[in-house]
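Q: Please design a sequence for this.
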């Protein structure tokens, strides 16, 4: 295959590129920063990678590279868990997803030889937050900021169906691996100061990065996969259980809770990402026959941390 990827230099995207390269596929990396992309994917280690400069929110000559591809994986978007959500930051978070997806769909629609599939990232933030409800792919959307972002993001992606292209929307849970959210939780545990964040009762719906990459590959290669799928492990946990398991795996205590006000002081509105969660079940994903390498948290954390 030849696959175009946005967000390829990120935590998930770089793992996906490594897998595609290892399997002999060709990859077009669409990036705002070609110098950084060349450092992440040096040509001697990644001979199948073509790096193309693009402006996510604007049409341009970059769009022509889509025509030669079999599939497109759209992972780009401003990070949501970093820094306070000022009005400007919220606009960046929304625009990077809404306009970025709009321009990818435009490129696909204008291509003479169209890719057969668009795999578009979304997030379980689509469902809003709850300590008591359980959500699957058929659940209604929430109405907070992140839910509105996901609705707008997915609405742009759905327009690709007008071009006759198969669409797969993957609603990502919190991705566990070397980096990402877990990378920020590890240092306190190493210093014997780890513990649950906030009440500890909030749900933590997660997926191991290797399972997520496998899920993307399945979506690329199986034409019967279409529509919305939750990219989460089948066994979500509460935050208190996450920190307890981290402590056990790292052989460290999990005794020092991080108070909600400390996170709110750091992140403002963005604190909702870690202080309030949602219990998300990958019902449709399981129905496809997808086999998780890491359906349970302890083996997933053991693999990552050791």
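A: Design:
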């Amino acid at each position: 295959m030849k696959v175009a990827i946005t967000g390829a230099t990120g935590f998930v995207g770089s793992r996906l590129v490594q897998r595609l390269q290892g399997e002999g596929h060709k990859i077009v990396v669409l990036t705002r920063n070609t110098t950084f992309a060349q450092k992440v994917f040096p040509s001697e280690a990644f001979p199948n990678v073509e790096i193309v400069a693009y402006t996510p929110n604007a049409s341009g000559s970059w769009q022509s590279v889509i025509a030669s591809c079999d599939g497109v994986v759209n992972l780009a978007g401003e990070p949501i868990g970093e820094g306070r959500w000022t009005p400007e930051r919220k606009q960046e978070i929304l625009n990077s997803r809404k306009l970025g997806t709009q321009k990818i769909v435009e490129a696909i629609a204008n291509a003479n030889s169209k890719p057969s599939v668009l795999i578009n990232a979304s997030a379980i933030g689509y469902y809003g937050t709850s300590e008591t409800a359980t959500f699957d792919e058929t659940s209604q959307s929430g109405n907070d900021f992140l839910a509105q972002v996901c609705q707008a993001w997915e609405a742009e992606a759905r327009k690709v169906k007008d071009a006759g292209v198969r669409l797969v929307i993957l609603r990502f849970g919190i991705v566990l691996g070397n980096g990402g959210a877990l990378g920020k939780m590890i240092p306190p545990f190493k210093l014997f100061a780890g513990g649950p964040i906030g009440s500890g009762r909030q749900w933590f719906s997660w997926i191991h990065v290797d399972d997520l990459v496998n899920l993307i590959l399945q979506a690329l290669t199986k034409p019967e996969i279409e529509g919305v799928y939750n990219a989460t492990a089948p066994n979500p946990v509460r935050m208190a259980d996450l920190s307890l398991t981290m402590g056990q795996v790292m052989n460290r205590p999990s005794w020092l809770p991080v108070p909600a006000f400390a996170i709110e002081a750091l992140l403002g509105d963005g604190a909702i990402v870690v202080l309030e969660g949602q219990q998300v079940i990958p019902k449709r994903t399981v129905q496809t026959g997808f086999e998780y390498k890491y359906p349970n948290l302890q083996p997933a954390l053991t693999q990552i941390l050791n």
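Q: Thanks. Anything notable?
A: The chain has eleven helices and 13 strands. The radius of gyration is 19 Å.
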